[in-house]
Amino acid sequence: MGLLDGKVAIITGAGGGLGEAYAKLFAREGASVVVNDLGGPRDGTGSDLSMAQQVVDAVTKAGGKAIANGADISTIAGGQSVFDDAIKAFGKVDILVNNAGILRDQSFAKSTEEAWDKVVKVHLKGTYCVTKPVFNFMRDHGGGVIVNTSSTSGLIGNFGQSNYGAAKGGIWGLSNVLAIEGRKYGIRIWTLSPGALTRMTADLPRYIENPGAALDADGIAPAVLYMVSDLSGDQTGKVLGVSGPRGVREMKMMEMEGWKPPLDKPWSAQDIATHAAEIFFSDEDSKHGARRF
User: Fold this and answer.
1) Which domain of life does the protein's organism represent (predicted)?
2) Is residue 214 part of a domain?
């Protein structure tokens, strides 16, 4: 018995890296998988369906069930295509993992509109385009699980990734709303913040300097399996960080109790300065394992 017996999963960006690892693990656990990947280099130029097909071939050779889809998920038509192929081949969708992405890193001062638009379109709009038909199907058919991929670049920040960080922060915000709207329909929403050594991250300084500390894609996949399986119960609206140095941990927005200005008289900027200790986190908070984002 597999953890995903009888389930149907869509995984975008599954022609390599993290998505490929998810697809193969899900299939081993009994799921039928739609492997979506536009193909091509990591900057989003070009296309090559053979990447998705190679993963499908590996899954089927191992006895699993999978089909390939090469649609551009950053368009409404592409997102609908992925969903339609799942319904045509397997009759339903129980799981969606929005994993597709590209990188066009530039410092903000040197950034271009073209690079900004492309990265935001693939990550943020792409998550919308695929999720829309799947969410509506799950709403009408008893629920399901959706995992949206964010990043510490969006939750905390990272030099040279303003476009990527903005898109990943937007995905986190989208997930928060979907968790609220999907709860009554039995749709569970997760946000994943993975840290792994893949084609997308191979030249990042932190992995070049400490390659032994990085997880590979297979090291991230069990956490995603946990999220989409019954092992995670009815949990929804949570962010799970998974990486080599910090392991597996929930990440969340934090807020201080704060200072409450008087409602019956004006208050000033000086008042905020006076009550700063009540309003802002201190360095002491980080000593107790908390990270602010």
Assistant:
1) Bacteria
2) yes
277 and 183, same domain (yes or no): no
Instruction: Please indicate, yes or no, whether residues 206 and 277 belong to a single structural domain of this protein.
Output: no
pLDDT digits (tens, 9 = 90+) for 47-70: 567 899 999 999 999 999 999 999
Task: Enumerate the β-bridge partners of residue 9.
Answer: 33, 95
Domain count, the chain: 2
pTM: 0.88
pLDDT tens by residue, 184-208: 999 999 999 998 654 554 455 555 4
Instruction: Indicate whether 192 and 261 sit together in one domain.
Output: no
Selection from 209, 220, 217 nearest residue 247 by Cα: 220
Q: Are 39 and 51 in contact (CB under 8 A)?
A: yes
Active site residue 164: yes
For residue 89, with 0-12 CB atoms within 10 Å meaning exposed, 13-18 middle and 19 or more buried, which class applies?
A: middle
b (16+ CB within 10 A) / e for 185-212? bebbbbbbbbbbbbebbeebeebeeeee
Q: Please choose, from the candidates 231, 252, 248, 222, the residue with its C-alpha nearest in 3D space to the C-alpha of residue 188.
A: 231
Q: Are 108 and 153 in contact (CB under 8 A)?
A: no
**Is 49 found in the same domain as 134?**
yes
Q: Which of 22, 128, 164, 185 is catalytic?
A: 164
